[in-house]
Amino acid sequence: MSLDWGLKRAPFLIKMDLKRLPKTEFAAAVAQIAGERNIEIQPILDSIELGLISAYKRDQKEKGIEIPEDQEFSVELSADTGSFSVFKISKKGKKKDVTPPDFGRIAAQTAKQVIDQKIKEAEKDSVIADYRQKINSLIQGTVLGVDPYKLTVVIGRTEGICPKDERVKGEDLNVGDKRVFLLKEIAQDETGRRDIILSRAAPEFVTQLFVREVPEVGNESVVVEKIARSAGKRTKIAVSSKQPGIDPVGSCIGQKGSRIQSILAQLPPEEKVDVVAFSDNINQFIIQALSPAENIKIISVEKDSAVVSLPEDQLALAIGGGGENVRLAGQLLGLEIKIISQQQEKKPKTTKKAKSAKK
């Protein structure tokens, strides 16, 4: 029985070297498909054989013939002509040709479905390979679907997903909205399904906005040394430059704030961005990290903690709403920061003996 079902009429324009296969209709069609889609020929044939076995079992079931679950079958498929036979394999390993006489049409449909699936897989492989080169870069997307667990986003030739934990909490996005996303990774689950994962909550999203909007960051004359982010609330980014004459903070802010405004336009309206100067001097870096607070005094710095004091009128700025400013400063520094007022610092310490005397 043959699988020549008219693939030669398919609109494949690529020219192939068919020396490996005789130029029969089946062989030429398979070779053309393999060449155009950059698929190996043998996996196509292997998949067709598996597809024929599945189709045979369905056909027999529809005819009321029960097949034991442990029954083995094989298919012999000629790559030259497309002819095939289905064999039943006994427990002793003997083969018996069980190809139904009316199986040709079903087999042809099966083969076509298998090849169509291979084409789709190859196209997805090509798209995934293309986007794999763009990991950790920004990409424009249009929201296609919204559910409680993810956004489905159209990006160029394909779709990506933005999971719930990669969204900015409180950012209301609807179908049709256009946004910039970070292409975070290509994820693969246990079934082999691959998804392009997008993010608007990752700290790297803000880093890449600076790369795009600030030429000095893009050409690495200004370096993003550290970044800490509470998505939708506040981001602190520490920058440096080893090139004389370049002010790293000023470069990121831009003339009259033009560059930082371009970055803020891509973030939720409530999110603030503090650009601070990185320093190898830990005391100086602590002072910079706690901006916009001023008049900071370093009391002590240990391996994983620091104590600082500030005037009363600067405490709220240093701590920030809900402790956000000091927490992000601590992330930048890799320290737990304790803040006290300078008035508390000046109070004499009460000794244990004095306390007991009062009692």
Low-pLDDT parts are: 5-23, 351-359
What share of the residues does DSSP label as strand, in percent?
Answer: 25-35%
Helix content: 25-40%
CATH level 1 class label of the largest domain: Alpha Beta
Write the H/E string, N to C.
Answer: HHEEEHEEEEEHHEEHHEHEEHHEHH
Number of strands: 14
Largest sheet: 5 strands, antiparallel
Cα distance spanning the termini = 105 Å
> What is the molecular shape?
elongated
* Whole-number count of domains: 4
Number of helices: 12
Estimate the mean pLDDT confidence: 87
CATH topology descriptor of the largest domain: N Utilization Substance Protein A, Chain:P, domain 4
- In the CATH hierarchy, what is the superfamily of the largest domain? NusA, N-terminal domain
Radius of gyration: 33 Å
Strand order of the largest sheet: 6-5-4-7-8
CATH architecture of the largest domain: 2-Layer Sandwich
User: Which structural class fits the helix and strand makeup?
Assistant: alpha+beta
